[in-house]
Amino acid sequence: QVQLVESGGGLVQAGGSLRLSCTTSGGAFSTYNMGWFRQSPGKEREFVAAISWYGGPPNYADSVKGRFTISRDNAKKTVYLEMSSLKPEDTSVYLCAAREYYSPSSNSHEYHYWGQGTQVTVSS
Fold this sequence. Notes:
The protein is an all-beta fold. Helix content is 0%, strand content 50%. The chain is built from no helices and 11 strands.
C-alpha cells in the first residue's frame, strides 16, 4: 500500500518562506512522477508543480513560477516544495501526489496516490 505523508506547513507572514516535504512508503518512489497541488474550501484542486521520475525539467503553475521550487531525493523517497515570497493568496491545503510512470501532469485526475495535505497560511 502506497502512502504519502506531507509535512512542513504552517503560518507565515507575507514575503516569508516555507519548505514542504512529502515522504512516501510502500511503493517504488523512483518510478513516480510527483506533483504538488493545493486546494482551498469551495475551490477546485489547483496544480502547483510537478517533477518527473526520469530527471526532466520541473513544471510549474504560472502563479508560482519563480517563487516555488520542486525537488526530489530518491534515496529518502521524499519530494520537496520550497516556497518563497509567499503571498496571502498562496494560503491553502497543499497536497502531494504520485503518478506511476508516464510523465508529470498538471491534471490531478491522472495521479494515482495522494497524501492528506498540510495547511499553509500566509498572513498579510
